[in-house]
Structures are given as structure tokens and as C-alpha cells.
Design a protein that fits this description.
heterodimer, A: 191 residues, alpha/beta, six-stranded mixed sheet, 23% strand, B: 534 residues, Rossmann fold, five-stranded mixed sheet, binds thiamine diphosphate
Chain lengths: 191, 534
């Protein structure tokens, strides 16, 4: 079993908490894991990515080779396209549709979505709207993770456990909001 | 056995704690920052009262760590690669004095310059100083090397360099921990002259250093990290250093291609193993993350020996970070590829946060300096360097920490008027103070704007040594009170700030303008933690 995942977004959007949740679940499942993160300069509103590699065998490279990613999880639509060189022919792309516009020449969102729809396996969701509906505007991340969860080779329950661990310190309310967001995302991609 | 999910940086920090380190010294710098941050947030370090405060710069950090080693305790100092330039005087001479308690210097290189001015390779420094160098390929190895590095340091009485690169520093993996060792007892060096590098003593010590460097490669603590695995092929043998080994294994690990492979993860070079692989194989490919250090040594000046492929013949690109595709290509394997990035995807460079005080300072500066023409603003390294990018395009230099002040002095000496320096608060206390003293002593015609956000912003908001002290420091150095101005970079003060800047540009002497407003990131982090009650 191997699961190579690219997480993408803009600095400050919090892709690292998605990474942390998958990481915790991987450890609980006794999988080998390497997860490379971006720190430093590009965290200031620049594009950020994380390579997450899960396997039942030791993982060598910290970076996913081009064309080998099974999944791109993106919290921003234009950013989801930046990593297409890594996506395998049968890979899935799961992205938020809500743009993060902090550059003047940001392309029209419709054009971006058109490009995303050209990809064989894609799921586009408005995570911000769904997060609001499920009661916590700040858990858009977990909606996306939920939507991507069918393509991660670990049980849904183990992701739920990971979220309990990850947010446990912040209290039961925060845990519940994030679990709800995760489920809402999962239900959407089930459709 | 306890296992933790750790960044490469964190694995090194955890190992140092487990190996009985008594003091951690550092100045922030990507990708090394998380080493100190891990120690600072470690409950155990708190209980043991391990030293874990930031230093003003890498040189002061290196020297303080050497002082702790002098007193018999294990110490570690961490920095980004360019920090080792700042600490170089202390580092090179610490090889001459030698150590008492074990001393590890961690230098984190940044090939491809994700967050740096250059991609210098710290392994050269180890060779230059003639000290052992470890180059871990993964998090577990990094953890274990720290124990061996401390031991080797104490056995040979030498500082030891651990060289990592961005990918390892910022990649997480599961690490199993060893049994923790107690801290060392305090002791002073048995030879009272060990640390006295008077020429007569230094000459003797240098001879000893030359001898010990030769014997290092036979030491098991070092040699065990260099491993040879024979293969059935005889046409091509591969030497892979540090993290390059991972990219190689990614490509050949599970396949039938069976090259003889020599992994190098500790220096000085394993001469015997290199001789062995070159005798077995007709051709050698060398994979190194960083500069072609091993490759140059193997080729020699005449390069007329065995056929060698590497960075110098561009089998591997001469610059930049390695990746699985580069290595696949170098060994003749097919390179997979997804699909092209659609043309509509735009670059998203880093930018000022909304509401950043640096941005307001630049708005005023641009207005104030307009009438004098372009090319008069020297700057430095930090968030404010983003002022180089449009729409600001407000600065004309960013070289090394502190260079804004001193380059402005030199340009003023050449008659450039006005000569303006823009420097951040942490950069100012890192390396701006001495330049300011030069300016004051010579009465240079410079205007120095200290853009003070009360934090070390670029590297994630560490405490700044300058906080609350800048005015006093400037006065103490001798800046006159009339030309020491404090402004608040806010939209509402724009006109007033332009006026003050213009006035100070016109003054033919040293002016300092402190543009002071807290970083909005640290301010909002403080608000959040106050709201949640911690
Ligand atoms: C010798 C050296 N050490 C460390 C760094 C890493 N570094 C770059 S910017 C920076 C922080 C500068 O802080 P400050 O001057 O306060 O400016 P701010 O980012 O807060 O605007 C650091 C530590 C470096 N580039 N060179």
C-alpha cells in the first residue's frame, strides 16, 4: 500500500493541520510516513505545499516524484492546479472552490474551475459554505479533508480519532465542530 | 521503545536533549529555526533548566556554546548556512582550541534558496576547519548521529558539524528514541592553556589538528555511516551523499537495477570505500545535495582518471536542490510526469500581511525620497525586504545581515546623497550596531530607518533582542538626540512621517528614524492567547 498526497494552499490557510491529522492517523495505523512542509519565506501569503507519503514499507524520498501523487488536496482552487505535474493519471484532485485572492492578476474563478473540470477525477466543493452550515466557519479545512477521505487508504474512524487528538486541547466544542465538518465533507464526496 | 513524529530539526533537538545537552544556542534562520524552538517548548528542557534563549547572532551563539563546552558540558549551536559565515571566526578557531564538553554545530543549508540569499554548502566549512561532519539522510539517522557526534567531539576534543538541508529539516517522520543520558558534570579544561591561541601555542595545536583529522576517518562513530552495497552491475557505480541517497533509493529501491552503491553520510571521506567502488566500476555517478564537494575531490585538477558523472558535467544540474526526477534521469530511468500546469496559474510571491507596519513605512519613504531620484535605499534581510517587490520597488539592496547600514556609509563616502538604510529591529541587533558606531565616529551623512516591529518576523516571530532597547542603544552609540526620531508607521501619520524623513535626509550627519509598530502577526497571536486564557 502506498498513498502519496499533495496538500496545497496559500500561506496562513492552515494546510498543516490537515497534514497533522493525516499524520496522526498514519501513526495510529502503524504506517510509515514522511511529510515535508514549507516553512519560512513563502508562509507570508505565498503558495505553500506539503508532500505527505504513507506506505506499509519504509518511505525513501521526502518528496513525491512527478506523476506519482494519488491525491491532491487543496484549500484553494488556483493552487490545486499548480501541482498537476505531480498528479498520477488516475489520481484524484479534491479542492475548495473559494478563491484566496491576494494578487492583482488572479484569473477569473470560472476559468480556474473549467481547468479543474478537465481533470479526470476531481471533486470541487465550497468548503467555506459547508463549514458555515455545519456550524464552524473555521473548519473549512476539515470539510476538504472529509471530502478527500475516501481516497486516503485509512479508515474514516481513524481520521476521526486523529481529529479528536489534534483538537482535544481546545475543548469538546472545537472537536465536535471539526468532526461535523469532516463528516459533512465526506457525505458530499460520497454523492 | 518510544517513538515520536518529528521534523528533521526536531529529531536533532530531541537527540541533543536525550544525549545530555546542557545548553542550546541559536539565532533564528530558515530552515534551522525549529531546532531551538523545539528545545524551548520541551517540558524536559524546562525541568532540567537547559539553556535555551536566543542569541543576538550566530557568532555570539557559537561563542557561548564554546564557553559551555569549556566548562565541561555538552552544548549545541544551530544556524542557517549563511549564519555560519557570521560565526566562522569562532567556528574555525574552535577547531584550533578544541573543546572540553561535547560541542555540536548544526548548519542548515538551503539548496534552491527557498528562503535564502545563496545555496552555499556547509560541508566545505567542516573541511576548512578540519572537523568531522555528519550529513544525515533521514530523521532517524539525524537523531542517532547526534549521540555519535557528541562522543566523537569529546574523544577528539573537536567541535563537530552536522549539516542538514531544507528537505530533511522540514520533513516529518517517525523517530525511535534511545535511552537518555545524564548531563555532564562541570569541569574546567585540564590544560589551562588549551583555549589560549597565542601564536606559539596555536602552532603546536595546529600540528595536532592536522594529525587528528587524518585519524578521524577510521573512527567507527564516523565510518559506520558510510556504507557500501555491492551490485551485479560493473559499468556504473553510484556514490550518494546524505539526502541524495533517498532519491536514489526512491528510484532503484524496489527495482531490479542493481548498481553498486556507496552511501556517504559522514566526513572526512571514506577513502578506502571510494577506492573500492572506483576499482569495481568503469564509471561513477556522484549524487550530492549542494555543491560538488566529493565530485571535485574525485576528479582532481586533471580529471583524467575514471569516468565521472555528476554536477560538473551537468549529468545533474549544476545548481539547485535534487529531487527524484533529477536522479532518475541521471541513472537513465524513465521520468514520470503528470500534466502541465495550466497557463492561467499565476505566481503567488510572498507579500506583506494586510496592515503591516513595514508597508506604511515604505509608503512614506517612497514619497519622501521621490524628489532625489532612484537608487538611494540600502536595505537588509527580513519581512521588510518584500519592499523590493512591486508595487513598492522601494529598496536597492539586500546582501547580508547588517549590510544596509554599512553600504549606506560607503555610498555616502562616495558622495551619494541621500544615503538611506532600512533595517529591521532584529537585524539591527544582529549586525547593525557596529555599523552604526562607524557612522557615528565618522559622522557619515546617512539616514538609518529602523523598521521596528518588535519581533523577528520573517522566521516566524521569535523574540527580538532589540525590543524596548533601540532608542537607548542608539543614544549610547552616540546618535544625537535631535536626529533620533521615533515615528509610528500608520496611515494617519503618513504626511507627518514624510516630513520627518525629508528633514533627516537633508541633515548632513547620522540620523536614525525608528519606525515602531508591533508586527500584526505577533500582536494577533498575543490577543488570541490572552483570549484563550494562557
Ligand atoms: C546571517 C543570517 N542569519 C539569519 C538569517 C535569517 N533571517 C532572515 S530575516 C530574519 C529576521 C529579521 O528580523 P527583523 O530584522 O526584525 O525583520 P522582520 O522580519 O521582523 O521584519 C532572519 C533571522 C539570515 N538571512 N542571515
Amino acid at each position: 500500500m502506498k498513498n502519496d498526497i499533495i496538500l496545497s494552499g496559500v500561506g496562513g490557510q492552515g494546510i498543516l493541520s490537515i497534514a497533522a491529522a493525516i499524520g496522526l492517523a498514519a501513526v495510529a495505523n502503524d504506517l510509515f510516513l514522511k511529510q515535508s512542509e514549507v516553512h519560512g519565506m513563502s508562509q507570508r501569503g505565498g503558495d505553500v505545499q506539503s508532500h505527505l507519503r504513507l506506505s506499509d514499507k519504509p518511505v525513501h524520498s521526502d518528496l513525491i516524484p512527478y506523476g506519482k501523487a494519488d491525491l491532491i488536496i487543496s484549500v484553494e482552487p488556483m493552487e490545486s492546479l499548480r501541482y498537476l505535474p505531480w498528479l498520477s493519471k488516475d489520481g484524484w484532485l479534491v479542492t475548495n472552490s473559494a478563491p484566496f485572492i491576494n494578487i492583482p492578476e488572479y484569473p477569473p474563478v470560472e476559468e480556474i474551475l473549467k481547468e479543474i473540470r478537465k481533470i479526470k477525477n476531481h471533486i470541487i466543493i465550497d468548503a467555506d459554505v459547508i463549514a458555515r452550515e455545519s456550524g464552524s466557519i473555521r473548519s473549512g479545512n476539515m470539510v476538504i479533508l472529509g471530502a478527500a477521505s475516501p481516497f486516503i487508504n485509512m479508515s474514516f474512524a481513524s481520521l476521526e480519532d486523529a481529529i479528536r487528538k489534534l483538537f482535544g486541547r481546545k475543548g469538546e466544542e472545537v472537536v465536535e465542530a471539526n468532526l461535523k465538518a469532516l463528516k459533512a465533507g465526506r457525505e458530499l464526496s460520497g454523492k | 521503545m518510544k517513538r515520536l513524529l518529528l521534523l528533521g530539526d526536531e529529531a536533532i533537538a530531541q537527540a541533543a536533549l536525550d544525549a545530555g545537552m546542557s545548553g542550546m544556542y541559536a539565532y533564528p534562520g530558515t530552515p534551522s529555526t525549529e531546532i531551538m524552538e523545539y528545545v524551548q517548548s520541551s517540558a524536559e528542557a524546562g525541568q532540567r533548566n537547559v539553556h535555551r534563549k536566543w542569541s543576538s547572532n550566530e557568532k555570539t551563539a557559537m561563542e557561548a556554546a564554546l564557553g559551555m563546552s569549556y566548562a565541561g558540558k555538552r552544548a549545541m549551536v544551530a544556524m542557517k548556512h549563511v549564519g555560519l559565515n557570521v560565526a566562522a571566526d569562532a567556528f574555525i578557531n574552535s577547531a584550533m582550541t578544541g573543546v572540553n564538553g561535547g560541542l555540536i554545530v548544526v548548519s542548515a543549508d538551503d539548496p534552491s534558496m527557498h528562503s535564502s540569499q545563496n545555496e552555499q554548502d556547509s560541508r566545505f566549512y567542516a573541511k576548512f576547519a578540519m572537523v568531522p561532519c555528519f550529513e544525515p539522510s533521514n530523521q532517524q539517522e539525524a537523531y542517532e548521529m547526534v549521540f555519535d557526534a557528541f562522543e566523537a567531539s569529546e574523544k577528539y576534543r573537536l567541535p563537530v558539524l552536522i549539516r542538514i538541508t531544507t528537505r530533511l529539516a522540514h520533513s516529518r517522520a517517525s523517530v525511535s528514541l534511545k535511552e537518555a543520558l545524564p548531563e555532564r558534570e562541570r569541569s574546567i579544561p585540564s590544560d589551562p592553556l588549551q583555549f589560549v591561541l597565542l601564536p606559539a601555542i596555536a602552532r603546536k595545536k595546529y600540528k595536532a589538528l592536522l594529525t587528528s583529522y587524518e585519524s578521524l576517518k577510521y573512527d567507527l562513530r564516523i565510518s559506520k555511516y558510510n556504507t557500501f552495497k555491492d551490485g551485479i552491475k560493473r559499468d556504473l557505480g553510484i556514490i550518494a551523499c546524505g539526502i541524495a541517497y533517498n532519491y536514489l533509493m526512491e528510484n532503484i529501491g524496489d527495482s531490479q537495477v542493481d548498481f553498486p552503491v556507496l552511501k556517504i553520510a559522514a566526513y572526512p571521506f571514506p577513502k578506502d570505500l571510494i577506492k573500492d567502488i572506483t576499482e569495481r566500476c568503469n564509471e561513477i555517478l556522484i549524487l550530492e545535495e549542494g555543491a560538488p564537494l566529493v565530485e571535485e575531490a574525485l576528479r582532481g585538477i586533471l580529471d583524467n582518471g575514471i569516468k565521472i558523472f555528476g554536477r560538473l558535467d551537468e549529468t545533474v544540474p549544476r545548481d539547485g536542490e535534487l529531487n527524484p526526477a533529477i536522479v532518475a534521469k541521471a541513472i537513465g530511468l524513465p521520468v514520470s510526469f503528470g500534466s502541465e500546469v495550466p497557463a492561467l496559474v499565476k505566481m503567488r510571491p510572498p507579500s506583506f500581511c494586510k496592515g503591516c507596519g513595514h508597508a506604511d513605512m515604505f509608503d512614506s519613504l517612497i514619497e519622501a525620497i521621490k524628489e532625489y531620484g532612484p537608487g538611494r535605499v540600502f536595505s537588509d534581510i527580513g519581512c521588510y525586504t518584500l519592499g523590493a517587490l512591486p508595487p513598492y520597488s522601494a529598496i536597492n539592496s539586500c546582501v547580508d545581515m547588517g549590510a544596509s547600514v554599512t553600504m549606506a556609509i560607503g555610498a555616502a563616502d562616495a558622495g551619494l546623497f541621500p544615503a538611506v538604510a532600512v533595517i529591521g529591529d532584529s537585524t539591527f541587533t544582529h549586525s547593525g550596531l557596529t555599523g552604526l558606531l562607524d557612522a557615528v565616529v565618522k559622522n557619515s551623512s546617512v539616514t538609518i530607518i529602523i523598521s521596528d516591529n518588535s519581533t523577528t518576523g520573517m522566521t516566524g516571530g521569535q523574540e527580538s533582542q532589540a525590543t524596548g532597547r533601540i532608542e537607548q542603544i542608539c543614544k549610547g552609540i552616540g546618535v544625537s538626540a535631535e536626529h533620533l526620531k521615533v515615528i509610528v508607521p500608520l496611515r494617519k501619520n503618513h504626511e507627518e512621517n514624510i516630513r520627518i524623513m525629508k528633514e533627516e535626509f537633508e541633515y548632513r550627519g547620522v540620523s536614525v528614524i525608528i519606525a515602531s509598530r508591533e508586527c500584526i502577526q505577533t500582536a494577533s497571536a498575543k490577543r488570541k492567547s490572552a483570549a484563550s486564557g494562557n
